[in-house]
Please model this.
Amino acid sequence: MSSFLRSLAAVSAFFSKTFAIWVIIFALISYYYPEGFKFLLPYVAILLGVVMFGMGLTLSLHDFSEVFKRPVQVLIGIVGQFILMPAIAYALALSFNLEPAIAAGVMLVGCCPGGTSSNVMSFLGKGDVPLSVTITACTTVLAPVVTPALFYVAAKQWIDIDPLVMFFSIVKIVILPIVGGVIINALFRSTVQKVVLALPLVSVVAIIAIVTAVVAASAQRIAETGLLIFVVVALHNCIGYALGYLLGVVFKMKTQQKKTLAIEIGMQNSGLAASLAAGLAAKSLIDPIAAVPGAVFSVWHNISGPVLATFFANIKNTDNEEDEIK
Model:
């Protein structure tokens, strides 16, 4: 590896580890100086597409291999992801009597697939990484159909949205970039392996831009409802962790798999939620405040995730289970 690539990898790793700090800093700047960041709003979908393209560059058919080795466990993770998180979001929206646009934003976070950073957190928490990668990959592939369907059923009491609009939006900003990344990875693997070192840095910059755009567009509303949104988002995430772990207990999984289910279910692709809401807002289909829960979730779960992973890392796994999983 050349000195330039080593330096690039080091810089990328630094910004990846300090991601939450940078998001908070730029979110605060965009909150106090919104006019300087509103120009990013029309590019939110493109920015998430860049993140998803990067994810595609790291994916291969092998990432779906656990489907065939442990289909029941993968299915439990997928169903848990798409049942528990929307249910928690719905319960919180009703419990806190959220206004329609905010309730819709919280529901959208709950209906999204798992977040890509969950794989890293599973690794750091000594969880079942292959299971985590497969569940994330499967929920992401299913998202164009499942997310709009769930959102339409759960959020129609608050807003009127055509699920087909969301379907095509997710296909454009998630599936097509991921498929493009997978194809390029397959055709130019040796070159991609060099470029992939910079992906964490690119993803950090893109997600920071998404968050700042959303915050800038809703700065005034955040001043009125920001604390409430933060409380709901934090509860959504933490309850997701708890119920994910409990799901593993109910199905008598081993410790590594319980850890992975907790992380996989609790961490959402909140960037997708923020992007979809921002896209709908740009078409005047929803209040821009609906994108804020996704933006806040992006910050919060990148703080809570490492904390939980550190806690899990100190919980001893069942004897020999690591060898069995490998």
Summary: The two ends are 29 Å apart (CA to CA). Confidence is low (pLDDT under 50) at residues 322-326.
